[in-house]
Amino acid sequence: MKAVSPGSRGPTLRALGLTLPLVAFIGVTFLAPLAAMLVRSVYDPVVADALPETLQALAPWDGEGVPSEAAFAALASELVAASDARTVGQVATRLNRVESGLRSVVTRTARRLRNAEINPDATTPWRDAVVSVADAWEDAGTWRAIRRAGERVTPRHYLNALDLDQGAHDEIVRQPEDLRIYVPLLVRTLVVSTSITVLCLLLGYPVAYLIAHAAPTRANLLLLLVLVPFWTSLLVRTTAWIVLLQSRGVVNDLLVTAGVIEDEQRLQMIYNMTGTIVAMTHVLLPFMVLPLYAVMRTIPSLHMSAAASLGASFGQAFRRVYWPQTLPGVGAGSLLVFILAIGYYITPALVGGRTGQLISNMIAYHMQQSLNWGLAAALGGILLACVVGLYLLYDRLVGVERMRLG
Amino acid sequence: MNAGTNAYVEFEGVHKSYDGETEVVRDLHLSVQEGEFLTLLGPSGSGKTTCLMMLAGFEAPTRGAIRLGGRTIHDVPPRQRDIGMVFQNYALFPHLTVGENLRFPLEVRGMDKAVAAERVRDAMRLVRLEGFEARRPGELSGGQQQRVAIARALVFEPRLVLMDEPLGALDRRLREEMQFEIRRIQRTLGVTVIYVTHDQQEAMVMSDRVAVFNRGRIEQVAAPEVLYEEPERPFVATFIGDNNLLRGEVVDVDGDYCQVDIGEHTITAFLVSPRAVGDTVVLAVRPERIGLADEPGTYGNEFVVPISDVIFLGDHLLVRATMGEQGDFVVKIPNIVGHGAVLPGDRVRIGWTATDCRALVPDED
Ligand SMILES: Nc1ncnc2c1ncn2[C@@H]1O[C@H](COP(=O)(O)OP(=O)(O)OP(=O)(O)O)[C@@H](O)[C@H]1O
Ligand SMILES: [Mg+2]
Predict the structure, then answer these.
(1) Quick one: B211 and B275 in the same domain?
(2) pTM of the predicted model, to two decimals?
(3) Residue A331 CB partners (closer than 8 Å, separation 6+)
């Protein structure tokens, strides 16, 4: 144990105290939303809150055939109550996500019940009255869907995000081929992010080398050039790529003028995967150059001279002496670029077209369009798991304490 | 072979300028014999490192020729020069172990693994670092790192070893120990070494010969004792050991000796290079060659001078006297006279023989 001298505790506490505003800020703006998102990905109380008695009546049901009259009665009264509370839409949406087609069944049934168009009497019990609205109520699948949607804590969103589904007996099955969206998209995101990371490394390494071993004034100028993109808005930079790469854009015009390609063969370089990769590589390049530069600056150029005097060619000296010493920078830069890339949203949204979309665009879609926040949260959770996994891998291979970011 | 010389390393009329204006090395002529330990000694910025860099191939001379083993080496890239170099800051590769650092020059030469292992073992034994192969340089002390750097520069049996102030970063005791070690290793292997330092004592202790650098020029190349006893330039006279310098005019020349008028006195001095009557010379007298003359007529040159200060240093006294307009004058007296024999304010008779007083051509500036 380390002895703390009495005098040193005060300043340490004060220093900690000074960081409190930041700690609070991070708590409110980062940790809390993150926690809320993770909770939302596994917790969904809407159906459970709206249909408590129906769910209770369904509890003894064995999942085959049609449930008891009590379940129908509870459903009818709770649907009416939900209509009055204007929550029936949410309930219908949730049920529809478990079993598609249920949205209209539920809203229609609720409307008819509320308007008292169907009423049970001695001869027609609740069951017949409800079934008269839609045959789906005679289907065991519908009721199983209600029971599943009624679970407050549910793996549903994660299964959904991984293109999995629960079968009739809660067994996990893969979605049919044509319905698998998210896993291919996730794989595509990982592949694209890897490509961008590799491209950034290939482009950024020589630049960082040049800056790190240039004379100070020139190094400052070069560093400035690397940082200039940070001074322009991301939107401007991205739209600049549209100007350059579109089919009537600068690059195509030049190629046609130079006779490299015919006018009819103009290259499609934007609104597809090419556009996404080009623009994102550009945007993320500084995040590779800066950590590399920080590491390279600490490597004395004398090492290369020493290697040469020991008889090594430039290639040997680079491979054996220089490159290994830059690995912490390579690791840090690649980690940074990769993590930024798998979560990147704006650039693919603007220049990705249909084929250049990444997982984060899908998350945005579920946040803003389909309003399936649970699924969006689950997709985000999976992304987070990828990042954490990568970080742990990096720690194992390189050691986080050796990471240098700038 | 270059006609007439059998020098192993040879600089011939070498000039070097980095910016095209100031020459940091001017008209350098220097020959080093095979197996010799030659030291380049000079103040900071005098061009010593530049000379090593030209030899190692990291800088090219602006003019002149550099030969190694009789051949000019201008067109040979550094990696093919086969010269071992010990850098001032060691330049050990921090991500490799000591063993891997030593194996590096052997591996890039494609040497057989078993032979390389043998060589590494021998080199480690030579620098007395057996058992440290698996450590990284960062886990060694400064002196140990220095030994590794030396071992690495020797392990591939280069034709020539260059060392640029290799002991600069070490404390005094370690430095003295390493001076001895380096000299031992050099003698054991019989390898030719060109060594750079700005510490004159280090140069004296280690070298067969010392080349004294001053502002890009060599002032004198000679064995340490010759440099001390027979300096040819005022710069050398003061840079190596202490010296009293007196400026004066030659009033008479008689063979190897001359009479020099320094203002109040006329002094008989040994003429190092021919001078005519009327020329200005600088007289150099070592403090320890000056004695107290109890009886007049003990020395060839005698003066009665006032004492301004006496410093007691145990085995000797440092007496500061005033020599007319020439200012301070230091006399070193062995402590056989006893503390208190000479006191500030006294006027004493001091003197030296004519052979101990060298008349040198003044430094140009
Ligand atoms: N790469 C360089 N570019 C320009 N000038 C240089 C360069 N290297 C050295 N110089 C200049 O050349 C002169 C001699 O430098 P050098 O390094 O040879 O001196 P040195 O004798 O080794 O000095 P020190 O004892 O301080 O190491 C100095 O004035 C220095 O400023
Ligand atoms: Mg130097």
Answers:
(1) no
(2) 0.80
(3) A394, A397, A398, A402, A403
